[in-house]
User: What shape does this take?
Amino acid sequence: MRVLIVDDEKSIRTTLKIFLEREGFAVDTAETAMQAMDLVQMESYDILISDIIMPQVSGVEFLEEIRVSLPDVPILMMTGEPTVETAVVALQRGAFDYLYKPIQKEALVKTVKQAAKVRELALQKQALEQEKFEYQLNLEAMISRRTADLDKSMQSTIKVMTSLVDSRDPYTSGHQIRVGNLSAAIALELGLPAFAATGIRVTGYLHDIGKLALPSEILVKPTKLSRYEFEIVKTHSESGYNILRELSLPWPVAEIIYQHHERLDGSGYPRGLTGDEILLESRILIVADVVEAMASHRPYRASLGLDAALAEIRQHAGIYYDPDAVAACLKLLGEKGYEFENTYYEASFIGI
Ligand SMILES: [Fe+2]
Assistant: This one.
């Protein structure tokens, strides 16, 4: 432990230094409070012992200044006037204890050792706080690393699932990505928050995943489907729901997919939901799905054209399709010149 003694009397400084060095303390001395202040800036002390009455800066003023810069260092005051008032003032200003002059060796050593214990505890507390602080920092860094890893692996899972559908249903290759992108654009056009639009984008990328459960003869059939075959195709909404319902995502992706062929008037499938029973996300998705499907070329038929696609949603706005979603889609593809996007955008699953 390192002690600084401040006293204007040389004999006291020397005597105290000898007493304390014999007890194993490292001791520095200062003649004035100013000199002590300089030393305190340069060196680290565990205990300070200061005279109360000194020329220039008094011990009490010194005490007050030191308390601010070194709050955990015990300060012992020495007084030549053994009055209760002086002692009280010193303690009130934050002194650890006081010693009366002439200083008795036993009293000095006993008090300094007590101060040393207090200092030791303060140092231990500081070390624990530092440890706790570092632990929290590590924990936070670890959590954000793990969260980023999870986010990345979820993104890869979605991407794999999207390409799985494309590989099994080559006729509609890229359909899900274009629908996802258009759905997100419609959501943003409707003023939905960015994170909700991301959810709709992800759902669009996956919306036909239920086709994985369809027989491949139907998927690759180059001619128009029979009524019976079309009934089988209709099961893909529920299959998609069943495939995705266990996947933990921040949006109701499975349910949106379950409802993506429902129409406002109840003529959709599989459950014939009506109006507000259908999730807004599904109402957006169906508009994007119909427009992209009609505007795209298929091996078994030429593209019906964007105009026919837009005419379809315009004609059935408020009947099959949500009128706001239709209006937003028309605005995008009409005056805003939106073009179908084949880019797969990585979507972060962590809220923005
Ligand atoms: Fe579909």
In short: The chain has a mean pLDDT of 91. The pocket of fe (ii) ion is lined by residues 207-208, 236, 260-261, 289 (CB under 6 Å). Residues 169-333 form a domain with the Hypothetical protein af1432 fold (CATH 1.10.3210.10).
